[in-house]
Each structure stands twice: as structure tokens, then as C-alpha cells.
Amino acid sequence: MNFHTRKWVKPEDLNPNGTLFGGSLLRWIDEEAAIYAICQLDNQRVVTKFISEINFVSSARQGDIIELGMKATHFGRTSITLRAEVRNKITRKSILTIEKMVFVNLGADGVPAPHGRECIRYADEAYERYRQTVQTSADATAVAAANEAQRQADNEDTSVH
Ligand SMILES: CC(C)(COP(=O)(O)OP(=O)(O)OC[C@H]1O[C@@H](n2cnc3c(N)ncnc32)[C@H](O)[C@@H]1OP(=O)(O)O)[C@@H](O)C(=O)NCCC(=O)NCCS
């Protein structure tokens, strides 16, 4: 499981008991899980479909630094299932676990669409894909510029004759 995101528990995140408010934590988790799903499925149009039992294992206090962890546990046809855990960054004590968070991949029409993914992809692979895309479009731009230069040269030749 990768713990990418750290949060610092601040006064505005507390409940009247002086510990981390569950609603704040769930908002952070849902956002973190959505970002994870977006990166895995390469699609910004993903929505939360299902969240299983949430186990608030222990509390966090003001000033604590906590970290949010995600791992894809299942790739369906249009969905992805994640497991989530939040823990104290320093003590590693578990704060929350969610066994199952299901996100659905949508098409431009807002209807579930197959995502074609089968296994976890890592950040380096995403960067490599991005680099290749940029390289490919740079190549295409270079070819188009060369063609345009050639076309202009041909026109100039025509006007000379
Ligand atoms: C997401 C939504 C489009 C899915 O519609 P749907 O009619 O349930 O779609 P489907 O029946 O085709 O199911 C889509 C996928 O979700 C899965 N799914 C549906 N209900 C599920 C449930 N209760 N638990 C787990 N997975 C579920 C299906 O198994 C399917 O996955 P697969 O293709 O990998 O097998 C629709 O339910 C919706 O718009 N929900 C609201 C989403 C939302 O607003 N979320 C909060 C804000 S992000």
C-alpha cells in the first residue's frame, strides 16, 4: 500500500471531543481515493459508487500528522475497487480502515464505460506514457513544420520561374 498524502490535523478539523472529525477524514479519503482511481484508469470521469464499512480504529489529535494509503484490490470491467487505510505518520498506529471503495469509470456521456485496465500501474509508467505522448506530438509538430517549410519553398520556386 502506498501512503502518498500527508495531512496535518488542525483546529478546524476537530470534533467537540477535540479529536479529528470523521467527516473531515472521510472527505480527505474520498478525494485521495478518487485521485488514485483517476491515475489508475487514466480518466478524470470517475465517481464513487460504493464504500463498505468504515472502521475508525483510533483517533487523531490536533497537531498529529497522518497519512492516507490506497491500494487497488480489484479491476472490474467498468469499476475499480480500492482498500484504504489512514495511520499516524510517526507512530504508524492505524486510525481508519475501509476494505472496499468502488469507483466507476464513466464515458463522456456519463454512462459506465470499460476501462480496459487489469493491474496496478505505477507513477513512473504514467510519466513514461506522458513523455512518449509529448515526444510523439513533438515529432508530429516537427514533421508538420518541415512540410510547411517545404510547401513555402515550393511556392517560392514557382514564383521565381
Ligand atoms: C455510478 C453509476 C453511473 C453506476 O450506475 P449503475 O447503473 O450501477 O452501473 P452498472 O450496474 O453498470 O455498474 C457499474 C459498475 O459498478 C459496479 N457496482 C454497481 N453497484 C455496485 C455496488 N453496490 N457495490 C459495488 N460495485 C457496484 C458494477 O459491478 C459495475 O462494475 P464492473 O463493470 O467492473 O463489473 C450510478 O450508480 C451513479 O451515477 N451513481 C452516483 C455516483 C455519484 O454521484 N457518486 C458520488 C459523487 S462522486
From TrEMBL:
<protein>
    <submittedName>
        <fullName>Acyl-CoA hydrolase</fullName>
    </submittedName>
</protein>
<dbReference type="GO" id="GO:0052816">
    <property type="term" value="F:long-chain fatty acyl-CoA hydrolase activity"/>
</dbReference>
<dbReference type="GO" id="GO:0005829">
    <property type="term" value="C:cytosol"/>
</dbReference>
<keyword id="KW-0378">Hydrolase</keyword>
<dbReference type="InterPro" id="IPR033120">
    <property type="entry name" value="HOTDOG_ACOT"/>
</dbReference>
<dbReference type="InterPro" id="IPR040170">
    <property type="entry name" value="Cytosol_ACT"/>
</dbReference>
<dbReference type="InterPro" id="IPR006683">
    <property type="entry name" value="Thioestr_dom"/>
</dbReference>
<feature type="region of interest" description="Disordered">
    <location>
        <begin position="141"/>
        <end position="161"/>
    </location>
</feature>
<dbReference type="GO" id="GO:0009062">
    <property type="term" value="P:fatty acid catabolic process"/>
</dbReference>
<comment type="similarity">
    <text>Belongs to the acyl coenzyme A hydrolase family.</text>
</comment>
<dbReference type="Pfam" id="PF03061">
    <property type="entry name" value="4HBT"/>
</dbReference>
<feature type="compositionally biased region" description="Low complexity">
    <location>
        <begin position="141"/>
        <end position="150"/>
    </location>
</feature>
<dbReference type="GO" id="GO:0006637">
    <property type="term" value="P:acyl-CoA metabolic process"/>
</dbReference>
<dbReference type="InterPro" id="IPR029069">
    <property type="entry name" value="HotDog_dom_sf"/>
</dbReference>
<feature type="compositionally biased region" description="Basic and acidic residues">
    <location>
        <begin position="151"/>
        <end position="161"/>
    </location>
</feature>
<feature type="domain" description="HotDog ACOT-type">
    <location>
        <begin position="1"/>
        <end position="109"/>
    </location>
</feature>
